[in-house]
Design a protein that fits this description.
15 strands; about 325 residues; UDP-N-acetylmuramoyl-L-alanine:D-glutamate ligase; 4-stranded mixed β-sheet; single chain; 11-stranded mixed β-sheet; alpha/beta; 10 helices
Length: about 325
């Protein structure tokens, strides 16, 4: 079983206009809504790649019901804790004339202590998982310490834990020793307290995190690829150049690609190739549409893997 945990999911309302103009009515050319949130995106891409999974977290109100319904229509199982507040709605605006993309992310509903404990009790009672992916922002009312608690609960079954959060949540989360984290360069720089530019600096920072008990650090670097740093191994997967339609959800798709490799028993090099291919496949799609299997399969053989340190260096 694969679980994904999104504590602050959202409906992503995506709007296309020709160009934003001040003091006039801006006509909407097209609009769509998607179930969103970091690990929600992981669930969707896993499903697209043929990996069954169950989405967990909090939902509330009409927006929450729509989010559940959209996941159900995509064939994704969910088992959310219902809360008294309303699931947030994010607004993403695309300017067709300029190619610019504007995102307005809402805070989300405040989670009551009783609702939080209901989630923890649910997590404790679930069947053991092979992999658990945890990601996204925290809703109001929840302390970043929650990630340490979630990881501790999940670890009772020896599941592999993938943590994709940032800031204080990431600092607290790594204290519980997740197996894998996936920061981008900015998030890794913030975590270690210094700006990282050169590859040697990035690798050294990732190794610091390894020494804190995190087995694998995946560092996403956009078009430059994804770096994997683990004990005795440093790999870099660089995807082919593509015409980018949108970068929304690319990092989440990379997490899903990596997990899909893990559950198939692939070695770390192939898992990293899958991560780069899935992330790049998402950039081919408009708005918040995500990696499709056909695109993923075409990209996998085009990803260039380099062994920067390890058995084949």
């Amino acid at each position: 079983m694969i679980y994904t945990i999104t504590l602050n999911p959202a409906l992503d309302r995506t709007i296309w206009i020709q160009r934003i103009r001040e003091d006039v009515s801006n006509r909407i050319l097209e609009e769509k809504s998607f179930a969103g949130g970091k690990s929600i995106d992981v669930s969707k891409v896993l499903k697209n790649l043929g990996v069954e999974n169950t989405a967990l977290g909090f939902v509330g109100g009409f927006a929450g019901r729509e989010l559940e319904g959209r996941l159900l229509n995509e064939g994704i199982q969910s088992d959310f804790v219902r809360v008294s507040g309303e699931t947030r709605t994010n607004i993403i605006i695309h300017e067709k004339e300029t190619g610019k993309q504007l995102a307005f992310n809402a805070r989300g509903p405040e989670i009551k202590p009783s609702e939080l404990m209901q989630f923890i009790e649910q997590l404790e009672s679930l069947p053991c998982a092979q992999v658990v992916a945890i990601g996204g922002s925290l809703p109001p009312g929840i302390n970043p310490e929650i990630y340490r608690k979630i990881i501790a609960v999940v670890k009772r079954c020896q599941a592999k834990i993938v943590l994709d959060v940032d800031g204080e949540a990431l600092r607290q989360g790594i204290k519980a020793h997740p197996n894998i984290i996936k920061p981008n360069i900015h998030e890794l720089s913030e975590l270690v307290g210094r700006e990282l530019k050169e590859m040697d600096e990035i690798i050294a920072a990732a190794r610091e995190i390894n020494r804190q008990g995190v087995e694998i650090v995946l560092v996403s670097m956009g078009a430059k690829g994804i770096l994997l740093v683990s004990s005795g191994r440093v790999y870099l997967a660089v995807p082919p150049a593509v015409d980018v339609e949108s970068t929304i959800g690319a990092g989440d798709s990379s997490v899903a690609g990596f997990i899909s490799g893990l559950v198939q028993g692939k070695d770390l090099k192939d898992c990293l190739i899958y991560a780069a291919a899935a992330g790049t496949a998402t950039t081919l799609r408009q708005g918040t549409a995500l990696c499709q299997k056909d695109d993923f399969l075409l990209l996998v053989p085009q990803v260039k893997l380099s062994v920067l340190f390890g058995e084949e260096k």
